[in-house]
Automatic annotation (TrEMBL):
Keywords: Dioxygenase, Iron, Metal-binding, Oxidoreductase. It holds the Pfam family 2OG-FeII_Oxy_2. Binds 1 Fe(2+) ion per subunit. This is Alpha-ketoglutarate-dependent dioxygenase AlkB. Its cofactor is Fe(2+).
Amino acid sequence: MQEIPINTLNGLRYGPGHFDRAAQEALVEDIRTIVAEAPLFRPVMPGTGKPFSVRMTNCGLLGWVADKAGYRYQPLHPVTGKPWPEIPERLKDLWRAVAPDAPPPEACLINFYEPGAKLGLHQDRDEKTFDAPVVSVSLGDTATFRVGGLNRKDPTRSFRLQSGDVVVLGGEARLIFHGVDRILKDTSTLLKSGGRINLTLRRVTPA
Ligand code: MD3
Ligand code: FE
């Protein structure tokens, strides 16, 4: 894992190709099982009700949801009313490897990007603790991903995230603004119908 300084902030670590093709295929199988139990849903912006271009689901004790009422973590799927499926063992292994000092992850948000989907610049601040890092895994088509600073107007840089890449956002970088500008079509053969999956493992409550 290489440390990438963001202006002067420490805590963004990048592991290009962390998962090889076989491990990526195994992760996709894990995700298919989860999605069969906890179907993808399309969140809407609180207040305006504008739909996200990204569809989502979760695994873990808690899942992140967005609806007209707000953004929050909750223990039940918003459509089925069932608990989220468990976090797959190979993702718990990843967390232990890259965040050995953090308590176990409570949530894994699964984002599914069709070509054309994007995620505007935002901070991840719905958690009740920012002590643990956010750990991200990219699968499928390459994304151009943007990271800024702690203020929305800070300068941003963009990176490409490829299938199998892992990013760890901790320390001073935990609250930086970030987003996904675009998905580069036909850049991976991992997902039969194309698109991109991003997994983010999160600790939500203090240990
Ligand atoms: C966390 N996902 O789900 S992950 C999100 O590629 C989200 O789907 C993006 O942002 C995606 O909230 C990016 C990698 C990432 C990058 C910067 C971060 C996660 C981060 C900065 C702070 C916290
Ligand atoms: Fe985010």
